[in-house]
Specification:
Blueprint lengths: L1 H8 L9 H5 L2 H20 L3 H14 L3 H13 L3 H18 L2 H17 L2 E5 L6 E6 L2 E2 L7 E2 L3 E9 L5 E7 L4 E5 L30 H26 L5 H28 L14 E7 L6 E7 L1
Parallel strand pairs: 1-7
Antiparallel strand pairs: 1-4, 2-3, 2-5, 5-6, 8-9
Helix pairs in contact: 1-6, 3-4, 4-5, 5-6, 5-7, 6-7, 8-9
Length: about 300
């Protein structure tokens, strides 16, 4: 059956005729055909296989017959085109049987048996429990058969794929008369990695600048100086004879006022140390105002504050 299928693929060569040749006289066409045939035979003897194939193809276009097909198949076989040679031998065998050409029939049978043994095959071994979607040899999708896939000698590309599996690809070198076993591996595809979600953290807000409590420090210094000055005046007043009560009173007033100013300055320093500098908030800060008017005949001294 395989030979019959192969032969059917090339039966069209028996029907090929040139339009120009149909208009050419038969006697002239035969002379040209015989000349091409002899040139092809001479090229075969010289080992010029490709040129010989061209000559024989020109003969077949004029009129095909088993002996020409045999010569063409022989040249193709020498070129390593075993599959083409096999098909041509099969077509020659069918033509020889149809025309009762015994010698050509015998030659075609022997040549066909010989070339069948030379054709290498690629045997595909599939992994168990894997439903394949496609197997390709040299880009052609094939049916996986136990006897293997026939190829010409040389290098061939084999690919296989299945849903949910990593693709398979390899290159094999087929030698004359050998079966090359290809064990297909289709590992399960690894799940796609999930990109981690990166949460961008906001940088911490820097603390607001703290205004240096210049006025509070100054008030504390002034109050301290006044307290010391008041104490000095009280001392002078007490050491005088008779005791200078006015000076003593003034010293006490100044000392008390200075002490109160010193305490107020300390309070301002303590409360302003953690308060950020802000023009809008300046009105709410603690403040102390000092007023003193000492006189020998009496007077007043006072301190007002806002907290």
């Amino acid at each position: 059956m395989r030979r019959m299928r192969t032969a059917a693929a090339f039966t069209f060569t028996l029907l090929i005729t040139s339009h120009a040749a149909a208009e050419e006289p038969a006697w002239k066409r035969n002379i040209r055909r015989d000349q091409l045939y002899k040139e092809g035979q001479a090229l075969v003897k010289e080992g010029q296989w490709e040129a010989a194939v061209e000559k024989f193809q020109a003969v077949i276009e004029l009129r095909s017959e088993p002996r020409v097909l045999l010569w063409t198949a022989f040249a193709e076989e020498k070129l390593g085109h075993l599959l083409k040679a096999q098909a041509l031998y099969a077509t020659a065998l069918e033509g020889a049987k149809a025309t009762n050409a015994k010698s050509e029939e015998e030659a075609a049978t022997q040549a066909l048996d010989a070339v069948d043994k030379k054709i290498p095959r690629i045997v595909i071994q599939l992994p168990p429990r894997v439903e394949l979607s496609v197997v390709l040899v040299d880009g052609t999708r094939i049916e996986v058969l136990k006897e293997g896939y026939p190829v010409d000698p040389g290098k061939h590309d084999v690919k296989a794929a299945a849903e949910g599996r990593e693709p398979f690809e390899t290159e094999v070198t087929a030698n004359v008369g050998e079966n090359h076993v290809v064990t297909v591996t289709l590992p399960i595809k690894a799940p796609s990695p999930v990109a981690p979600v990166v949460v961008k953290k906001k940088p911490p807000t820097p603390p607001p600048p703290v205004e240096f409590p210049t006025k509070a420090v100054a008030l504390t210094a002034v109050g301290s100086a006044m307290a010391i000055g008041g104490a000095v005046l009280v001392g002078f007043g007490m050491t005088r004879s008779p005791v200078d009560g006015a000076m003593e009173g003034i010293g006490v007033g100044i000392g008390i006022t200075g002490l109160m100013a010193c305490i107020g300055g300390i309070v301002l320093v303590a409360t302003s140390g953690s308060t950020p500098a802000s023009p809008k908030a300046s009105h709410s800060r603690p403040s102390i105002q000092l007023a003193a008017s000492p006189t020998t005949n009496g007077g007043w001294i006072g301190m007002t504050g806002q907290f």
